[in-house]
Amino acid sequence: MATFVVAYLAWKVTESPSQSVQFAFNGLSVGAVYALLAMGFTLVYSTVWFFDLYYGAAAALGAYGVFYLRSKEAIGGLYQVQNPVVNALFAAVVAGVVAWALYEILWPRLRDRVSQRRMYGIAGAAGAAAGVYAGFVFTFTDNLHVLFGPLAGLAIGAVAGLAVREALVRLTGNDSRLSTYVPIAVGLAGGIVAAAYFAGAPETKLYLSWAVSCLLAGCVGLGLYRGLYVTLRQRARSPLVMLVASMGILLAISAAITIVFESAPRPLPDAFGSEPLKLGGGNIKGFNFFTVGVSLVGFTGLLWLLQRTSFGRTVRAIGDDEDVSKVVGINTTVVIAIVFFIGAVFAAMAGILSGHDTAIQPRMGLLLLLKGWIASVVGGIGNLYGALIGGFALGMVEQFGIWDLAGEWKDVISFVVLILFLSFWPRGLLPRK
Questions:
Q1: What sign results for the dihedral spanned by CA atoms 92, 97, 100, 101?
Q2: Average confidence (pLDDT) over 2-28
Q3: What is the CA radius of gyration of the chain?
Q4: Which residues contact 18 (CB under 8 A, 6 or more apart)?
Q5: Which of 77, 111, 257, 324 could connect to 362 by a Cys-Cys bridge, CB 3.0–4.6 Å?
């Protein structure tokens, strides 16, 4: 059958090279979104070994978060959304997550000098401050560049400082003063410059809303894990219970999105690179190249995190045996919570990129979840390389599969691919070792 399919595609490519280039461009663009979904899905699944269906809701939250923050620009200001209840709810989630994270970070280091009650107070106050700040960000969306831009700039500076430190340590071979003070100087200078740039550039509001939406989806994912999944895992100890619980979350969030935004499809504001380019007989937008680049950067970053850092080693240890990891002193709750945060950020980014390419609608999360899962099965569940390959492979198969069919057949083709792989290649193209 594979030989027949390859022969058929070769014939079609020979028959119409320009159309095959167009399908290839479309497949790369869609496949990059599927690859992002599959990577986050693989990270979460290979750590906790259950299907977290919130993952689809995170994709929808990412896309609708951008629409919520930039609804004034989405359809010429004809449909604007600003809901105090939504703002308060998300602010409360941010407050809870920040308070919990600070407590988990500071308490082990300060337990000899600070009482636990005072530590609760410090973490709670910091969480409340973060919640108030988040409430301002969600409410005053016209000033997003002023409210959130400086924070984003400082975060970029911190990442730049860490990258410089990593490079210096590798070059010098030791952890000297040079590798301490230079990164701090670079990080501070870069952070201040970036913060000043964002604060004075209103045109960056759309891209800042990407970061806010991804962080929000990550906070909700982390909050769900710490607030719900940990309790269920301790009491039920059943993957089926976890699956049903996460399905309820997915359906509840999808319903809430429908209530707030209505069920009609909505467009996101035009991002950069929206004009199509003529290339090799096909049309492709610059934004599609950006989507592929995000997928590759996400893969490289996640691979580096898992293979080159102590955090990655703890994640892999938990994935191999969580009980043994607890015995050797790994705080599995914190590590898994971070994994859920990262996974949700990947899903949200995939939802945003997909939303800019097509319209968004409340049920988009379920479809993206399924496509991410199919891509993981095709590539090999639990294998990060497989997630990347599976995503692009699924995108290509979908696009070339509708050569002589209507576009609505894409989903049918995806599920046929899923059935074929589950029947004949259940371990995927690159099985986990």
A1: negative
A2: 79
A3: 22
A4: 280, 281, 282
A5: 257
- For residue 1, the model assigns a pLDDT of 65
Nearest-CA neighbor of 43 among 379, 319, 389? 319
Spatial separation of the C-alpha atoms in residues 228 and 246, rounded to whole Å: 10
Buried b (16+ CB within 10 A) or exposed e, 22-59: bbbbbbbbbbbbbbbbbbbbbbbbbbbebbbbbbbbbb
pTM, 2 dp = 0.91
Length of the chain: 433
For residue 432, is pLDDT > 80? Answer: no
CA distance 149 to 168: 29
| Secondary structure string (H, E, C) spanning 377-392 | HHHCCCCHHHHHHHHH
pLDDT in tens, 157-174: 998 888 888 888 877 777
Quote the CA–CA distance of 188 and 162 in Å, as a whole number: 11
Residue whose token pair is 């580096």: 304
Rounded-to-integer distance, Cα 205 and Cα 188, Å: 23
Cβ atoms of 223 and 93 closer than 8 Å: yes
Phi-psi region of 15 (alpha: psi -120 to 50; beta: other; left: phi over 0): alpha
So what's the pLDDT on residue 2? 66
Q: Which two tokens stand for residue 351?
A: 């939802």
**For the segment 47-62, what is each residue's pLDDT rounded down to a tens digit?**
888 788 888 899 999 9
Would you say 27 and 413 are in contact if contact means Cβ atoms under 8 Å apart? no
